[in-house]
Amino acid sequence: MPPGDCRFGYLGEYVYCENPGWPNTVETDAPDLLTCMQQCLEREDCTAVTDYLWLGQQDPHLGCWLFVSTCDAPAFDEILGEEDLGRTYRRACATPTER
User: Fold this and answer.
1) Alpha carbons 87 and 10: distance in angstroms, whole number
2) Distance between CA 48 and CA 98 in Å, rounded?
3) What does each C-alpha distance from 62 to 29, 53, 58, 67, 71 come to in angstroms?
4) Three-state DSSP class for residue 78
5) What is the gyration radius of the CA atoms in the chain, in angstroms?
6) H or E element: which one contains 15?
């Protein structure tokens, strides 16, 4: 599916894809969220991105991560979310009938 048929939706505060963490995440060298999303679109297995870049200089080494597992049933986790501060955006691509 061409990348132009995909969009990213913000999941909300403290919401994560199921099975977070290793081995389902891939670190990127993206300097910003849009580049991170583009890197996700270039991979068929990428279902979401988690952005820490929005924190700016607070923690610049965290960057932006690709999520390469299912994100069909995102979960709300207030405790983990308050500690993590990552913003997760789920990839959604149009099916041929939706175009």
Assistant:
1) 8
2) 20
3) 10, 7, 10, 14, 21
4) helix
5) 13
6) strand 15-16
pLDDT digits (tens, 9 = 90+) for 39-53: 999 999 999 999 988
DSSP 9: E
- Measured distance CA(42)–CA(64) in Å, rounded: 15
- Are the CB atoms for 12 and 87 separated by under 8 Å? no
- The DSSP result for 21-55, as a single string, is STTSEEE---SSHHHHHHHHHT-TT--EEEE-GGG
pLDDT tens sequence across 49-90: 999 888 876 555 688 999 999 999 988 876 665 666 788 999
**Residue of 23, 94, 85 whose CA lies nearest to 50:** 85
pTM for this model (two decimals): 0.80
Domain boundaries, the chain: 3-92
